[in-house]
Amino acid sequence: MGSLDAPFNPVSLALGAEASFVARTVDSDRKHLTEVLRQAADHPGTALVEIYQNCNIFNDGAFEVLKDRQQAEEAVIRLEHGEPIRFGTDVAKGVVRDRQTGDLKVVAVTPENEGEILVHDAHSASPTTAFALSRLADPDTLHHTPIGVFRSVDRPVYDTLMADQLDAAIEQKGKGDLGALLAGGDTWTVVG
């Protein structure tokens, strides 16, 4: 009968944890999938890519709205860094920030609001807008589902920072001697 737990959004979770590379794609869009995976592989550090993939056992047809060309035109929001976030038939819809609440919302693009359409910035230091984009999709109907790279920022990765820290310790205190450490005077006595 399935899980009773409310599902969580992996993209939102990763962005909330300030992951440096987060993306979403669809398995049947090979060109898009290949490009997203290439960017993830080139990213220094950990990358999360959510891939919407059909499973004929557990969720058969769950992503059809994103795969059917006509439905996808109205449902899929393709995120391209530096480009206005527009989609739909004749790209007549766009994403704007509500002036009162600050939330993102989908609107019909008009000459009056065209200047308000958000331009996607995958390299923004703050994950705030990327997080808001990850929350746009209706989890039941998948309408307004963003795909693409939500966030891609460069920052030092753990193994580089650790290697630098070890080098600094050796420079400050010398190479160290494991034998001397084990035979040294500072020991613990276990009383049982």
Present the secondary structure layout.
Elements: H1 10-16, E1 21-26, H2 30-42, E2 48-52, H3 64-67, H4 69-75, E3 76-79, E4 86-87, E5 93-97, E6 104-108, H5 128-134, E7 145-152, H6 158-173, H7 178-182
Parallel strand pairs: 1-2, 3-7
Antiparallel strand pairs: 1-7, 4-5, 5-6
SS element count, helices: 7
Whole-number radius of gyration?
23 Å
Instruction: Report the order of strands and helices.
Output: HEHEHHEEEEHEHH
Q: What's the number of extended β-strand segments?
A: 7
Biggest sheet descriptor: 4 strands, mixed
Tell me the strand order in the biggest sheet.
2-1-7-3
Distance between the termini: 51 Å
Strand content: 15-25%
Query: How would you sum up the global shape?
Result: elongated
Given as residue ranges, the uncertain stretches (5+ residues, pLDDT < 50) are: none
In which range does the helix fraction lie? 25-40%
Return the average pLDDT rounded to an integer: 91
Decide which structural class fits the backbone: alpha/beta
